[in-house]
Design a protein that fits this description.
Helix content: over 70%
Number of helices: 10
Shape: globular
Number of strands: 0
CATH superfamily of the largest domain: MetI-like
Strand content: under 5%
Order of helices and strands: HHHHHHHHHH
CATH architecture of the largest domain: Orthogonal Bundle
Radius of gyration: 24 Å
Number of domains: 2
Largest sheet: none
Structural class: mainly alpha
Length: 274
């Protein structure tokens, strides 16, 4: 017997292979970047802009290849600062966010101070931290943590406060303690929003490390930027910036991967283009 219902089309990207899903997610962005780089190359060549003012993407790519060893050494230094500073911000931000959620009086006192603290540019604190902590890794970790801390703690507080209170009331009928409600209901429900803050923080971590190295360092991508700028080696400046951007993208991708693995019940496609 023929069915009266029209055939249901296959769901689009959900059942496609990994390569097709990646092409669907990143294809438009890659095309846009390629078009921008092509226009950049064309304009610099047509206008005959000197390399020390504005190099072409092809020259920047050649510099990345020729200086790969030098950039790799400095990248390892910056990567260590980014990873440790981001981890400090993650632990501190989530812990303080939970504490302020549990103690309402503390939240009313501390939360406005956290908001007001963002009016102080973290960059201007870098020299002060170097003077206070020295030229070792300490100031860099502090600056990275300061860059990443605020979005994590705010996302944690807002995520926990946004949980439906009916769930907590239901747990109370089952004789659950306050910590039981936090552990079994509020924290799992808030994880998607917490990861939103972590993703934002991931994009700031590499920038924080570079600012810390600018203030006082003898190695790292930020230090190499200052040295290349002083020599008017603009292609190396752009190549170093490209490596910093790549670090930020890699850290962002790792956070997105962790979110997909740790919060599978709230998987969504807004972390990546769809």
């Amino acid at each position: 017997m023929l069915s009266d219902h029209p055939p249901v089309p296959n769901p689009p990207e959900e059942h496609a292979g990994p390569a097709r899903r990646l092409a669907h997610a990143y294809g438009p962005a890659l095309l846009l970047v390629a078009a921008g780089l092509g226009l950049w190359e064309l304009l610099v060549r047509v206008l005959d802009v000197p390399d020390f003012i504005w190099p072409t993407p092809s020259l920047i790519g050649a510099t990345l290849r020729d200086e790969a060893g030098l950039l790799a050494d400095h990248t390892l230094v910056t990567l260590g600062e980014v990873a440790l500073g981001f981890l400090i911000a993650l632990v501190a931000g989530v812990a303080i966010g939970i504490a302020l959620h549990l103690w309402r009086s503390a939240r009313r006192a501390v939360y406005p101070v956290l908001i007001a603290s963002q009016s102080i540019p973290t960059v201007v604190l870098a020299p002060v931290l170097v003077l206070a902590l020295g030229f070792n890794i300490g100031p860099k970790l502090a600056i990275v943590a300061l860059f990443c801390f605020f979005p994590i703690v705010v996302a944690t507080i807002d995520g926990l406060r946004g949980v439906d209170p009916e769930y907590a009331r239901m747990m109370l009928t089952l004789d659950a303690t306050r910590l039981d409600i936090l552990r079994r209901v509020e924290f799992p429900a808030a994880l998607p929003q917490i990861f939103s803050g972590i993703r934002i923080a991931a994009t700031y971590a590499a920038i924080g490390a570079v600012f810390g190295e600018w203030a006082g360092s003898d190695a790292g991508l930020g230090w190499e930027l200052v040295q290349a700028q002083g020599r008017l080696d603009t292609p190396l400046v752009f190549a170093t910036i490209a490596v910093v951007a790549a670090l930020a993208l890699v850290l962002f991708g790792l956070v997105v991967l962790a979110e997909r693995l740790l919060v599978p019940w709230a998987r969504r496609d807004d972390a990546l283009p769809s």
